[in-house]
């Protein structure tokens, strides 16, 4: 009996010491300040704590704290949220065959290229894991970027996701023509906001969003979301959805809708963005997010076995709504090349109105809660845009 008690005691001590370790680890917090709470006031609040400012944003600060006791004293702060990339497992180094590739032909981007429209002089901002800007297919299109995870000006991709997303938009198809992006001449700027494990912290995203919107890109593309699912009604209570929605009033923002068929993830649920679900060439993907936000502001784009660039001059496939969103960002680059005076709202409406609900028999039976306005149609979108008048 004594022996059992001493073992229990050891176990108890062990578990206490483990808890102690967790408490010592850094915790990330962020403030949701009320209108009358200034940044100075928030700084004042952390003065006598073990917490340090991690990021100063235009209307809030994020902090890292070592001491759990200190955290309890803070009134305006809460734990930061984590967002995840919306993909399945990347498959590295797998070369495509002709029959594998259907995306740009299916959404009629190839017919837009024949009109001479390829995204020239347009710029898409990505918030992702970074970009391998030395990749032979990407280096002509990469302009500049920033790494908000490590706080340096080198957004090199240490995960692979961002390089794949960038290629879907603008891969040149030099060494591998099947990797060619929807807007092969569009430029890319990159805010690295997701780390080497594919985790994207709220304050890094907010900082990247602020930075990206200041660069005045033609569109911003986001391929991450929360594991939680949302309907539009409560989505706007989510701080990131609110921030994204504000930016989306001025700059078109496209967001992966999520890989959970039971609801649309945040920030795709924000009403001003374009939420993007996933299609295969003749059907909706089972994982593609469904819900009111799709009906309100959603479209679908290729999302199964999409072939694109991976770091180190590699190529491969990826599935998920992650890979669907950049098709719409690329389509906006094409639209802006035809008429660079178009407002974000006009572009969004034109993409919606040009989307195809009856591309295949399986689509016409699908509800708007599943496919939104339908499969994007690049040619029809371009045809529905009037040329800007030359002066
Ligand atoms: Ca870096
Ligand atoms: Ca390119």
First CA to last CA: what distance?
A: 94 Å
Counting structural domains, the number is: 2
Query: Strand percentage, roughly?
Result: 15-25%
- How much is the radius of gyration in Å? 22 Å
* Residue-averaged pLDDT: 89
Total strands: 18
Strand order of the largest sheet: 7-8-6-10-13-15-16
Query: How many separate helices?
Result: 15
Q: CATH class of the largest domain, please?
A: Alpha Beta
What class would the helix/strand composition place it in? alpha/beta
> Fraction of residues in helices?
25-40%
How does the major sheet shape up?
7 strands, parallel
Q: Give me the CATH fold name of the largest domain.
A: Rossmann fold
What does the oligomeric state look like here? single chain
Describe the protein in words.
The chain is an alpha/beta fold and about 400 residues long. It is about 35% helix and about 20% strand. The chain has helices spanning about 1-25, 40-45, 70-75, 105, 110-115, 160-170, 200-215, 230-235, 240-245, 290-295, 320-340, 345-355, 360-365, 370, 380-385; strands at about 25-30, 50-55, 60-65, 75-80, 80-85, 125-130, 140-145, 185-190, 200, 220, 225, 230, 255, 265, 275-280, 300, 305-310, 315-320. It binds calcium ion (CA) (2 copies). One calcium ion binds near residues 147, 152 and 154.
């Amino acid at each position: 009996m004594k022996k059992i008690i001493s073992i229990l005691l050891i176990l108890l001590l062990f578990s206490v010491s483990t808890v102690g370790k967790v408490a010592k680890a850094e915790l990330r917090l962020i403030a949701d300040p009320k209108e009358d709470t200034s940044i100075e006031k928030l700084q004042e609040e952390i003065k006598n704590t073990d917490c340090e400012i991690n990021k100063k944003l235009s209307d809030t600060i994020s902090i890292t704290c070592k001491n759990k006791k200190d955290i309890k004293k803070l009134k305006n702060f809460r734990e930061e949220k984590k967002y995840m990339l919306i993909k399945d497992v990347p498959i590295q180094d797998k070369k495509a065959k002709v029959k594998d590739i259907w995306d740009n032909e299916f959404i009629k981007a190839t017919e837009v290229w024949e009109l001479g429209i390829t995204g020239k002089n347009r710029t898409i901002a990505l918030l992702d894991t970074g970009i391998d800007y030395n990749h032979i297919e990407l280096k002509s299109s990469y302009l500049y970027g920033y790494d908000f995870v490590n706080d340096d000006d080198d957004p090199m991709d240490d995960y692979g996701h961002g390089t794949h997303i960038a290629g879907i938009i603008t891969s040149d198809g030099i060494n591998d023509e099947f990797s060619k992006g929807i807007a092969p001449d569009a430029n890319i700027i990159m805010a690295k906001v997701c780390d080497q494990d594919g985790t994207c912290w709220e304050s890094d995203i907010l900082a990247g969003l602020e930075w990206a919107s200041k660069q005045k890109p033609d569109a911003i593309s986001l391929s991450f979301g929360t594991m939680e699912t949302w309907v539009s009604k409560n989505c706007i209570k989510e701080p990131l959805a609110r921030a994204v929605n504000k930016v989306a009033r001025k700059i078109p923002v496209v967001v992966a809708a999520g890989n959970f068929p039971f609801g649309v993830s945040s920030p795709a649920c924000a009403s001003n963005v374009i939420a993007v679900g996933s299609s295969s060439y003749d059907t909706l993907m089972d994982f593609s997010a469904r819900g009111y936000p799709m009906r309100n502001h959603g479209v679908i784009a290729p999302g199964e076995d999409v072939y694109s660039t991976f770091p180190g001059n590699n190529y491969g496939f990826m599935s998920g709504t992650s890979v669907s969103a950049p098709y719409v960002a690329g389509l906006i680059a094409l639209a802006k090349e035809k008429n660079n005076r178009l407002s974000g709202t006009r572009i969004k409406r034109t993409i919606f109105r040009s989307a195809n609900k009856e591309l295949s028999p399986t689509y016409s039976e699908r509800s708007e809660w599943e496919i939104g306005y339908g499969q994007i149609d690049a040619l029809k979108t371009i045809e529905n845009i009037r040329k800007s008048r030359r002066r």
